[in-house]
Amino acid sequence: MKRTAPVAATCVLLLAASACSHDDEPASKATTSTRPEKPSAAAEPTKAGTPDVKPLGASVRTDGAADPIEGNGGGVLQITPTSVIYMKSTGYDEPENGQFLVVTVKEKAMTAAPASEEAPMGGGGWSYIAPDGQAVSTLTGNATNVVPDGFEGGGAIDPGTYQWKSTVFDIGLKQAGGTLSYKDGAGEVYRWKTPASTTGPEASKVEASLK
Fold first, then answer.
1. From residue 10, how far is each of 1, 6, 14, 15, 116 by CA, in Å?
2. Each residue's pLDDT tens digit, 37-47
3. CA angle 110, 124, 205 (to 5 degrees)
4. Beta partners for residue 191, in sequence order
5. What whole-number distance in Å separates Cα of residue 86 and Cα of residue 169?
6. Minimal CA–CA distance to 56: which of 126, 104, 127, 128?
7. Residue 12 has pLDDT above 50, yes or no
8. Which of 55, 61, 126, 142 is the most exposed place for a label (fewest CB within 10 A)?
9. How far are the Cα atoms of 94, 114, 120, 168, 174 from residue 88, in angstroms, in the given order?
10. Contact assessment for residue 194 and residue 56, using Cβ atoms and an 8 Å cutoff
11. Strand spans (E) along 173-207
């Protein structure tokens, strides 16, 4: 007589054990990606020391410098560029490079000490960065010949007072719409975006005085 029951029982036990083994495994296995993760936008490198570019009309508090002629000054100077004017000629002069860029600036002494702009001879002052990257100083071309009426301010500003002045550049016809830059008495640099066309509350007054 054949004995098959033990063999069948053994097979049942083996199948059950195999099923239990598979049930103990996780439903899915975590996979590890070999692709490098792309850094987030917050982790992107930035240029250290690059000044923020402010809109026209924004005021900044700057360290003043001793007036190179009068010797006084220093203090804290609030500077506000207010208008930009492009002119291909004035009533008495022509630009060497294509057009004059005139920027009107309101300056106010903010402390008990007189305040003065830093001058180019002191290693600072105003400059203009054209869209093509050229740095233009206020001494380029015939810029120093252009002084609009009512914006002739210069020298030390007495405490509690302000004055209007202009800074002028002789630039190319395709160099409008760049960046105005100012370096103060402490070597700090401030920048403003310059519109590519004439604009601002003082524009008409400047144009009238220079025709």
1. 19, 6, 6, 9, 102
2. 433 333 333 34
3. 65
4. 53, 181
5. 10
6. 104
7. no
8. 55
9. 7, 36, 25, 13, 12
10. yes
11. 179-183, 189-193
Q: What are phi and psi of 185, to 5 degrees?
A: -65, -20
Instruction: Return the number of other C-beta atoms located less than 10 Å from residue 127's C-beta.
Output: 21
Global confidence as pTM: 0.75
CB count, 10 Å around CB of 21?
9
Give kind and range of the element (H or E) at residue 23.
helix 5-23
Handedness of CA 112, 113, 114, 118 (dihedral sign): negative
Confirm if 104 and 147 have CB atoms less than 8 A apart. Answer: no
Buried b (16+ CB within 10 A) or exposed e, 137-164: ebebbebeebbbeebeeeebbeeeebbb
